[in-house]
Structure formats: C-alpha cells, structure tokens
Amino acid sequence: MLEVEKAGFSFESFKVPRFTFDGNNHSGAIIKMGFSPSGRYISKTGEFELTIKFISYEEDNKDKIIFGLTAISKFKFKTSILYTEIPDFFYQNAIAITFPYVRAFISTLTLQSNTKLLQLDLMNLSNLEKPLIDNTVEI
Length: 139
Description:
CATH architecture: Roll
CATH superfamily: SecB-like
Structural class: alpha+beta
Number of domains: 1
Radius of gyration: 17 Å
Number of helices: 2
Strand content: 35-45%
Distance between the termini: 41 Å
CATH class: Alpha Beta
Largest sheet: 5 strands, mixed
CATH topology: Bacterial Protein-export protein SecB
Strand order of the largest sheet: 1-4-3-2-5
Order of helices and strands: EEEEHHE
C-alpha cells in the first residue's frame, strides 16, 4: 500500500471582493467566457494570493458583460520557500481548488436573481497554469 503524502501547502480563504451582473445584457445568444489568473507570493511568510478574473459576454458583443467577478484565494506553504522553489503542480492545483468556489458563487447569484441561470460546466483549466506563472510576482 502506498502511503499518502500531505501537500506542502494549505488553502486558507476565498472571497469575491468585486463582481458585476447584468442579466439584461443576455438576450439568449451564445455566451463566451474568459478567465485571467494572476498571483502574488510573499516569500517572507510563504503566503500565495491567487486572483482570478472571470467575465462572460455574448459572442457577438464583448462590450456587454453579463457577469464579471474578481475572486481571491489565499494559500500558505508549510514553510517559507523561495519563489523559484514553488512546485510546478501548485499553480494548476491552486486554480483547481478555487474554481468550484467561483462556479458556486456565479450559479448561486444568478439563480437567486431569478434570471437565466449561468451555470459553469466542469472545465479543463490546465491552460491557465502558464498565464498564472507568467502573471505571478514576488513581494
């Protein structure tokens, strides 16, 4: 039997400090969605702050945002490590841990507003790993 090894980091918190929702901007056309990840690593404390920006809009009109949000997740490494020592798997896992919270927030809010439910399907977000690495800064 293989013994399970605990992760070298923990999930600390999730919040949505900013969002916008305009159900009137959705006329029933095909909806496009986009994600933009970024991160801040505080090497002194071993804390990592993941910011994910999400927008949805109709395919033919990018200017009319239906739903937009900024979500922030905080993670903490067991020990303070150098920025260059952050394991590659962390970035993909941080996004995967945060996504269900973003998904639930959007679904719940659109359901409670008594408008057309905006439900995010399960998604392969592995293509967000490189943009997150590229948009991460050390503080």
